[in-house]
């Protein structure tokens, strides 16, 4: 195919999709690095992607389950047989009038992902996993100032001026789930005189580089920043001119009334950050040339809408919208639709596939993204019958994985599995595939075509990136997108009338005057122009209903959510006596254990280049109280599960918290299954069974729960 | 003799290990068929040190590779004369062909950075990407460094850069040709 050259393509060892170059010699990928066209960096996970590509353990041909679900016994079948099985079941489902009980759990690389198209054509639901991730941030920004920020895209650190302030709240940008340029950009900003403040219960590499590390009680971010806002507003330290000009009339007065009792002292008692430190942070915000905030884990604690709301308010009152070093307001570059467009499911009619006591109240939210299926719950209540999964690993890396595994083997009165068909596409053996009926061998990013399109461009500096095969695909692998296009052609030819994925991407790209060919000529990247600032000044308005910034969310007045609550998530407010520790899961740059593409990678599980253990980390103060020593085996138990792990004592964790690196505990894959490590999701409750007020405050405590620890 | 050198800026090293994997890829140190964790050769490793007591903590990260010693003990230990310090560059290189697999260099290296290929019966290690640097390129680890914490050049010039930027040489670590620098603590 290509010989001895550096070929631009895209990494896919995590969801950041960095633009990279692959060095191919005689049809073999030898090395990889960042693409200079994208200001070029690539992280350790991406570098190790070559090991995934050539792993002897890759899934090589389609497999069909022969034993019971969970046994992990399969036999080889052909692609035709695999497609027949899927087609037959989906047709049967449609004939029964149950098309909507089919879902595909995936990470859509773009709104025009062909897998998503297939689900819509089939009348099913898509499950993005986003609502319990960071869609609350997206929604908060959208509600407040009408911008459509990219999820996983950080502030533009390369624009932070001298005297600017960068705040990371439960965010691990040195872990590269963002573009791999971000760590360098943050360090460069610091080197030119910007300040870095890291708010996190765990001291990690960002904290090591920070001007100030603020350990916080998990879930306390909304309270902390309400205290900051209180100080700024009551001491006239906010950007009055900006607020007068741009905030909707009445909102500032109502905000003043709401904030009146959110004093640093009072907020301090919730977030466990001393009031003096809240005031110090407020003063830093007031004095800074610019302020930007990024958060991730802290919006996964169960009060994400509250925290996203406070975050938005702080940006507004400090005037940090679409300015260098503040919150970028991206523009949208629309691709062309591939017509005819299959209709999306009618959520109002079919309902959200979300369960819990507050379902009716939850429905008040205007989520733009179709919410997560709580698979375990949906199987139980008969609303999930056919389940496809790509690039996700619910048996291990989603909350309530134990509940999920149980659901996969539930049977109806006739003795058949309640979930009628479960298909996974996978590059490597994964925990989830053990429960699958069909396992389809997927391709790595070195072997497939894929248009990675983020309509809300510009933090990465591009809107579209092209993943292209740099070598001939190995084995009988086929990319999930191609499989769904092929199945689409069989079942819904009217919606799949295009020739193949390349023609599909060409049609989409024509919307911005581009094509696959042109993208390749341009080094695999395209953006509509250069970053502009304060675009609302030119437009004379924000992209909200009133054209102004809307601090008060009046549409949520009926559920009492027009202003953010400072309270910790429910998950952390109850059960303190029985479960005195708050477990916080975290991750590192060496590993992205959530997906099978990187969890079985020998270079990422090597003690030299990766990480091979996940002991439970606690502060020596707590250990002494409990009589626990370094290396002791302990039981960590939550209300829903328990694991046994060795203890690592470290000063780097806030007393009262326990830290556990996410994604261990695999039993599949010779590399991934090494060692006697445990998965954090054995402890975290299944979302569908534990939704109380979380529904109203922005999702579940997704990465944290209360636990007790004993020998 | 000019001494080519790498300067490691502890203000910028985040301990991400990208250099380790890029180095392995470039030098073909990954046996994709048989590689197992803990059994893969590596020319670089990352070290770190956490100091202080909660919540007043500090942590440094840095990389360790062949230090290209002024008087390399590995050269002295080698019975077959397979190791030499290049006169033009100061790079310490092992001649794989001449190596007889005696492993004496491994035992004598104070930095524990020499690898051994059992199948090929030879010792190997970081050669500052000799094949790249003689063509004017940087070593791979320097090029890919996620945080731009590594810099390559003549030792003398690198020291001038450090001085110009107000960074201090960590004398205890920088005894050979790899320089470790950081800003003075405020």
Automatic annotation (TrEMBL), chain A:
The keyword Iron belongs to this UniProt entry's keyword annotation: yes
A single MF term (Gene Ontology): metal ion binding
Xref: InterPro entries: Asp_de-COase-like_dom_sf, MoPterin_dinucl-bd_dom, Mopterin_OxRdtase, Mopterin_OxRdtase_4Fe-4S_dom, Mopterin_OxRdtase_prok_CS, Prok_Mopterin_Oxidored
Membrane-traversing stretches: none
Keywords: Iron, Iron-sulfur, Metal-binding, Molybdenum, Oxidoreductase
Positions of the 4Fe-4S Mo/W bis-MGD-type domain: 4-55
Cofactor: Mo-bis(molybdopterin guanine dinucleotide)
Domain of life, source organism: Bacteria
PROSITE patterns from the UniProt entry: MOLYBDOPTERIN_PROK_3
Family: Belongs to the prokaryotic molybdopterin-containing oxidoreductase family.
PANTHER family given in the database record: TRIMETHYLAMINE-N-OXIDE REDUCTASE (PTHR43742)
Protein name in the entry: Molybdopterin-dependent oxidoreductase
Automatic annotation (TrEMBL), chain B:
Signal peptide: none
Keywords of this entry: 4Fe-4S, Iron, Iron-sulfur, Metal-binding
Superkingdom of the source species: Bacteria
One Pfam family this sequence matches: Fer4
PROSITE patterns per record: 4FE4S_FER_2
Domain 4Fe-4S ferredoxin-type as annotated: residue spans: 4-35, 53-88, 90-119
GO molecular function: 4 iron, 4 sulfur cluster binding; metal ion binding
UniProt-recorded name of the protein: 4Fe-4S ferredoxin
Source organism of this protein record: Desulfolutivibrio sulfodismutans
Lineage, opening ranks: Bacteria, Pseudomonadati, Thermodesulfobacteriota, Desulfovibrionia, Desulfovibrionales
């Amino acid at each position: 195919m290509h010989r001895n050259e550096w070929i631009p393509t895209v990494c896919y060892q995590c969801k950041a999709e960095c633009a990279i170059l692959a060095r191919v010699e005689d049809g073999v990928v030898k090395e990889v690095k960042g693409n200079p066209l994208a200001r070029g960096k690539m992280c350790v996970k991406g570098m190790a992607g070559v090991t995934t590509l050539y792993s002897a353990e890759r899934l090589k041909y389609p497999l069909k389950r022969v034993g019971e679900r969970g046994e992990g016994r399969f036999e080889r079948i052909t692609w035709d047989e695999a497609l027949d099985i899927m087609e037959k079941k989906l047709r049967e489902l449609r004939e029964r009038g149950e098309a909507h009980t089919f879902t595909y759990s995936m990470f859509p690389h773009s709104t025009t992902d062909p897998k998503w198209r297939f689900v819509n054509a089939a009348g099913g639901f898509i499950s993005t996993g986003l609502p319990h991730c960071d869609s609350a941030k997206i929604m908060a920004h959208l509600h407040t100032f009408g911008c459509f920020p990219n999820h996983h895209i950080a502030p533009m650190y390369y624009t932070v001026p001298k005297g600017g302030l960068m705040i990371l709240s439960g965010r691990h940008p040195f872990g590269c789930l963002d573009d791999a340029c971000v760590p360098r950009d943050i360090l460069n900003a610091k080197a030119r005189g910007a300040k870095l403040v890291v708010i996190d219960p765990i001291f990690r590499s960002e904290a090591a580089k920070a001007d100030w590390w603020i350990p916080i009680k998990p879930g306390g971010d909304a309270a902390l920043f309400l205290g900051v806002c209180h100080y700024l507003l009551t001491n006239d330290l906010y950007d009055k001119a900006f607020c007068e000009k741009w905030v909707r009339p009445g909102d500032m007065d109502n905000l003043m009334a709401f904030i009146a009792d959110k004093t640093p002292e009072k907020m301090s008692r919730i977030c466990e950050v001393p009031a003096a430190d809240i005031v110090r942070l407020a003063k830093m915000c007031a004095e800074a040339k610019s302020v930007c905030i990024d958060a991730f884990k802290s919006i996964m604690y169960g009060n994400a809408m509250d925290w996203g709301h406070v975050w938005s308010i702080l940006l507004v009152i400090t005037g940090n919208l679409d300015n260098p070093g503040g919150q970028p307001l991206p523009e949208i570059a629309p691709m062309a639709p591939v017509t005819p467009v299959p209709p999306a499911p009618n959520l109002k009619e079919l309902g959200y596939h979300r369960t819990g006591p507050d379902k009716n109240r939850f429905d008040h939210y205007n989520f733009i993204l179709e919410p997560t299926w709580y698979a375990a719950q949906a199987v139980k209540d008969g609303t999930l019958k056919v389940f496809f999964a790509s690039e996700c690993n619910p048996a291990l890396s989603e909350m309530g994985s134990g509940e999920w595994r149980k659901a996969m083997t539930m049977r109806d009165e006739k003795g058949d599995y309640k979930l009628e068909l479960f298909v996974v596409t996978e590059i490597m053996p994964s925990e989830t595939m053990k429960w699958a009926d069909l396992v389809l061998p997927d391709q790595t990013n070195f072997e497939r075509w894929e248009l990675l399109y983020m309509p809300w461009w510009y933090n990465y500096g591009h809107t579209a990136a092209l993943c292209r095969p740099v070598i001939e695909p190995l084995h009988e692998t086929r990319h999930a997108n191609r499989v769904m296009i092929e199945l689409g052609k069989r079942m819904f030819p009217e919606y799949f009338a295009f020739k193949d994925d390349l023609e599909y991407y060409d049609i989409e790209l024509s919307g911005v005057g581009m094509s696959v060919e042109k993208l390749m000529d341009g080094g695999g990247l395209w953006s509509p122009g250069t970053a502009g600032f304060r675009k609302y000044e030119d437009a004379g308005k924000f992209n909200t209903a009133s054209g102004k910034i809307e601090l008060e969310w009046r549409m949520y007045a009926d559920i009492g959510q027009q202003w953010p609550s400072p309270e910790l998530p429910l998950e952390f407010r109850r059960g303190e006596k029985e479960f005195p520790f708050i477990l916080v899961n975290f991750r590192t740059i060496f590993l992205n254990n959530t997906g099978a593409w990187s969890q079985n990678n020998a270079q990422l599980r090597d003690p030299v280049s990766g990480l091979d253990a996940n002991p439970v980390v606690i502060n020596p103060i707590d250990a002494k109280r409990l009589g626990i020593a370094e290396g002791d085996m302990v039981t960590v138990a939550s209300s829903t599960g328990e694991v046994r792990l060795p203890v690592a004592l470290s000063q780097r964790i806030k007393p009262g918290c326990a830290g556990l690196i996410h994604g261990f505990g695999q039993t599949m894959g010779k590399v991934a299954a090494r060692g006697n490590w445990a998965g954090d999701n054995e402890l975290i409750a299944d979302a569908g069974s534990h939704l109380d007020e979380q529904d109203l405050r922005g999702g579940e405590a997704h990465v944290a729960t209360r636990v007790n620890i004993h020998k | 003799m000019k001494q080519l050198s790498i300067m490691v800026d502890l203000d910028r090293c985040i301990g991400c290990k990208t250099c380790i994997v890029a180095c392995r890829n470039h030098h073909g140190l990954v046996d994709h068929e048989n590689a197992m964790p803990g059994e893969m050769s590596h020319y670089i490793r990352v070290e770190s040190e956490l100091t202080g007591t909660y919540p007043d903590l500090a942590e440094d990260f840095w990389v360790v590779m062949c230090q290209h010693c002024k008087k390399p003990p590995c050269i002295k230990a080698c019975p077959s004369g397979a190791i030499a310090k290049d006169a033009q560059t100061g790079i310490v290189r092992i001649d794989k062909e001449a190596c007889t697999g005696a492993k004496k260099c491994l035992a004598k290296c104070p930095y524990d950075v020499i690898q051994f290929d059992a199948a090929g019966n030879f010792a190997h290690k970081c050669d500052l990407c000799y094949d790249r640097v003689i063509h004017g390129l940087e070593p791979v680890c320097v090029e890919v460094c996620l945080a731009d914490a590594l810099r390559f050049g003549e030792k003398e010039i690198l020291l001038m850069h450090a001085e110009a930027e107000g960074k201090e040489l960590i004398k205890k670590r920088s005894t050979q040709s790899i320089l470790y620098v950081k800003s003075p603590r405020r």
